Amino acid sequence: MNRGKHCNNKSGFKGVVVCNGWRGKFRAQTTVNSQPITIGYFDNPEDAYQAYCDYVQPIHGEFFKRA
């Protein structure tokens, strides 16, 4: 299902969440076959979003949508 970012998204990017326990860190994450996947931890949301896009685009192919 193509979903955009949630209205309560604090990072401003789809697939990127702010890590409360890690000061100033952002986590790129997705879900594959109902299983949560952590792609990695990053210092800024732009790098986390780029990693998210690089990871998800091959999986979703033509249905991949940049938010």
UniProtKB/TrEMBL annotation:
One of its GO terms (molecular function) is DNA binding. InterPro entries: DNA-bd_dom_sf (IPR016177). This is AP2/ERF domain-containing protein.
